[in-house]
Amino acid sequence: MSEALSGVRVIEVAAWAFVPSAGAVLADWGADVIKVEHPETGDPQRGLVSMGLIPGGPDAVNYIMEQPNRGKRSIGIDISTDAGRQVLYKLVETADVFLTSFLPDVRQRLQIDLEHIRAVNPKIVYARGSGQGPRGVDRGRPGYDGSVYWGRGGIADALTPGDSKFPIGGRAAFGDLAGGMAIAGGIAAGLLQVARTGEAPVVDVSLLGLAMWQLSPDIVASGLYGGDPMPKFGRSASPNPLVGSYRTSDDRFITLMMLQSDRYWPEFCTLVGRPDLITDERFADGGARFNNREECVREIDQLFASRTYGEWKELLAGLSGAWAPVQMASELVDDPMVEANGYLARVDRDDGKSYDLVANPVQMDEAADHLRPAPEHGQHTEEILLELGLDWDAIIAYKEAGAIL
To answer: Do strands 253-257 and 323-325 pair parallel, antiparallel, or not at all (unpaired)?
Structure first.
């Protein structure tokens, strides 16, 4: 495990995947991330097993909980009570970062908003993940990956084919996990600011802002030229036939991404056994291929339809231009580059279950992080409170008051 943030303590009061995934990244980098959960309900994502949304029954590995919560410690605190807030504030006194996904009115009601936390610890980095952002008329509205990032943020529209009757659907936590990386990067910069200046910032990342960052070429172009000026080409109208996906004889796909077509066209044609296309007047240079792009795409279509996916992967292995097989998620587990770089990490739980989680894409010194499993609900409550200096009588009193798990 990276030790970049060793000695940093993070108090996470957050649920679902967006903000908790930032906590997982910080834990991967060596921070002590303490996940605060309600004593009875915990993070709602724990309930996906009992709701039947996770295959394998009640004893299944809740992967959607494990991925964004690995490496943390869990403490069960009812922060809606005075006694529970006492415990939370004791934790905040020892922390460097306070990380939350709660909406403004909830933060105020629970007394965990910026002014409450800074009153306890003035030097703490206060980090918030939100749907629409920290200001404006919709600052208090809930927002999820599937609604704000995918819908309001324009991602679905940008990726939906023009002939589709409905917007294309997203994948689980698609924007959430990218957003978690953004929050973690902001927190790391915030910690550096504290170290250099002594001033702790407030860090904000919203799903709306994240979506706009990822669509920035489209958005900037529309501001400059109006409308939706980013070109969208059908396959046969692509200005560069060496950019696009081609179907193999067994109904798989290979994606070509050779942006400098004049540079790679002779090599490609030679490698695929069609050197005659190099001197064909219709395709002799980039301009000719553009003018005759439908014919060129048809020629390449026929080429790819003549071999299987496996044969094409073997044949194209020596090509200097960029290309890639279009893989399924299930195939990534056997990708040799995934194994070589440690992009999947084996996690062993105390109950004997072992499984792979996707590793942090940020590596330091070319070392893959050693991942620890996500905590059970309230697993570390007593351990953490003992570290704070509470004795067993105090812990029992808090338990009897319903303040802790």
So the answer is: antiparallel
